[in-house]
Amino acid sequence: MKADLESEKRSMQRIWKQRDKQIDKVVSNTIDMYGSIKGIAGNAIQTVQALELGGGEEDDD
Predict the structure, then answer these.
(1) Closest Cα to residue 46, out of 37, 54, 55?
(2) What is the pLDDT of residues 39-50, one digit of tens each?
(3) CA 13 and chain centroid, separation
(4) How far apart are CA 60 and CA 33, in angstroms?
(5) Kind and range of the H or E run holding 54
(6) Which residue has the higher pLDDT, 56 or 30?
(7) The model's pTM
(8) CA-to-CA distance for 44 and 61, rounded, in angstroms?
(9) Positive or negative CA dihedral for 7, 12, 17, 18?
(10) Residue 30 to residue 4: CA distance in whole angstroms
């Protein structure tokens, strides 16, 4: 039973690590896409506060 439990634990850790990497990729790609669109469209798109510097406050240009 102990060996089965350890095997299951290792399997779950592997699965969690894979999911963690997938989430990191999705977040990174989302940030890249937002940056690209913001670079093209400028202020024509709504600001995502979590992706802006300065606590989410926009500079008045």
Answers:
(1) 37
(2) 999 889 898 888
(3) 20
(4) 23
(5) none
(6) 30
(7) 0.66
(8) 14
(9) positive
(10) 39
Say how far apart CA 26 and CA 43 lie, in whole Å.
24
Residue with tokens 């093209």: 40
Across the range 49-58, mean pLDDT stands at 71
Angle at CA 44, nearest 5°, toward 43 and 48? 65
pLDDT band for 19, please (50, 70, 90 cuts): very high
DSSP SS3 for 46: coil
Q: Look up residue 29 and give its two tokens.
A: 């790609």
Q: Return the ∠ at Cα 16 (arms to 51 and 6), rounded to 5°.
A: 155
Contact predicate 21/27, CB 8 Å: no
